[in-house]
Amino acid sequence: LDDEFASEVSEFETLAEYKADVKAKLTEKKEKDAKDAKEAAVIDAIVSDSEMEIPEAMLKTQQRQMVDEFAQRIQMQGLSMEQYLQFIGQTANSMMEQVKPQAEKRIKSRLVLEAVVAAEKIEVSDAEYEEELGKMASAYQMEVEQIKNLMDAEREAEMKKDIAIQKAVDFVVSKAKEK
Questions:
Q1: How far is CA 165 from the centre of its chain?
Q2: How many CA atoms lie within 13 A of 120 on its CB side?
Q3: What is each CA distance from 95 to 64, 65, 70, 71, in whole angstroms?
Q4: Tens of pLDDT along 17-51?
Q5: What is the pTM of this model?
Q6: Which of 94, 161, 162, 179 could hold 90 in an S-S bridge, CB 3.0 to 4.6 Å?
Q7: How many whole angstroms separate alpha carbon 50 and alpha carbon 59?
Q8: What is the DSSP secondary-structure string of the chain?
Q9: 21: Cβ–Cβ under 8 A, 6 or more apart, which residues?
Q10: Per residue in 130-159, pLDDT tens?
């Protein structure tokens, strides 16, 4: 490993710069993983202390959405859902049953966080919305105005709701006490 190697496999001129970048990215990933794990633990604790009835139709809709999301991911890898199911020896119905616990957890988490948004009167400022649009524009390598033009009132409301949910996650994590 030398400067020549670094310049061939990266945009950096020296091995030291390349190593520093790799270290920074690994540190960032570990910090994100730790943050995600803490968020999940806090939300799981809140959900387990909550009682709620989930309508069967809501659960089925979430299951279908999760299977559809999975199908889209595997299609990007060049595999159809039918091929995948055949390969693993499952049916569409068995896959729906397999995702049922995750679907229920997703719904319960969302309902709890929506309740936190309402109880804490969490709102999304125009600046927060604009910041999120900026992140989207950067991710899709588009201009913010292009992203805005793609947003109808329904999508804008859904995006603001998602931002509020993330603020609720941040809120409950900040209030959580470790045992």
A1: 12
A2: 18
A3: 10, 12, 10, 11
A4: 999 999 999 999 999 999 999 999 999 999 998 88
A5: 0.77
A6: 94
A7: 17
A8: --HHHHHHHSS-SSHHHHHHHHHHHHHHHHHHHHHHHHHHHHHHHHHHT------HHHHHHHHHHHHHHHHHHHHHTT--HHHHHHHHT--HHHHHHHHHHHHHHHHHHHHHHHHHHHHTT----HHHHHHHHHHHHHHTT--HHHHHHH--HHHHHHHHHHHHHHHHHHHHHHH----
A9: 10, 12
A10: 999 999 999 999 999 999 898 899 999 999
**Cα–Cα distance between 12 and 3 in angstroms, integer?**
9
How far apart (Å, rounded) are the C-alpha atoms in residues 101 and 114? 20
At 164, the amino acid letter reads: A
